[in-house]
Amino acid sequence: MPIRQISPPELKEYLETAPNPPLIIDVREPWEFQTCHIQGAIHIPMGQIPKTYQQLDPNREMVVMCHHGMRSLQVAQFLEKAGFSRLLNLKGGVDAWAREVDPNMPTY
C-alpha cells in the first residue's frame, strides 16, 4: 500500500485543528534542520532511523518530512515495513512548506 501524501496546506490545517496532532519527524541532516524547520518537529536524521525507530510509538500518527519529500518517503516505507501504519509523507517537503505555508521561512 503506498504511503499517504499530505500537502503543506493540508498539514497546516490538520496541525491547527486536530485534537491529537501527528508527530512530525524531520529526517534531514543537522545543518538542514538548523537552517529551517517546522515548529514542533522532532529531528532524527535519516541515517539514525534504523538505530532509533524502536523509540517511536508505532501506533502514533506520524508525518515524515525532508527537503523535497524523497528521503522522507524512503523513511516512511522503512517504518511501514517495521510495523508502523499511521504514516504520512509531507509532499514537497520543507521546501514546499516554505513556498505554500510560511513565506518567511529560510530556504536553501
Describe this structure in words.
There is one protein chain. This protein is 37% helix and 16% strand. The termini are far apart. It has a single domain, classed as Rhodanese-like domain (Oxidized Rhodanese, domain 1, 3-Layer(aba) Sandwich), CATH 3.40.250. The chain has 108 residues and is α/β, with parallel strands linked by helices. The radius of gyration is 13 Å and the shape is globular. The longest helix has 12 residues, at 70-81.
What's the quick description here?
The protein has 108 residues and is α/β, with parallel strands linked by helices. It contains five helices and five strands.
The CATH class assignment is Alpha Beta
The percent of residues in helical segments reads 25-40%
Label the overall shape. Answer: globular
Mean pLDDT: 97
Task: Look up the CATH topology.
Answer: Oxidized Rhodanese, domain 1
- The helix/strand class is alpha/beta
Any idea what the CATH superfamily is called? Rhodanese-like domain
Write down the Rg.
Answer: 13 Å
Total of DSSP H or I helical runs spanning 4+ residues: 5
Fill in the keyword field for this structure.
108 residues; alpha/beta; Oxidized Rhodanese, domain 1; 5-stranded parallel beta sheet; 16% strand; globular
Show the helix and strand layout.
Blueprint: E1 4-6, H1 8-17, E2 23-26, H2 30-35, E3 42-43, H3 49-52, E4 62-65, H4 70-81, E5 87-90, H5 93-100
Parallel strand pairs: 1-5, 2-3, 2-4, 4-5
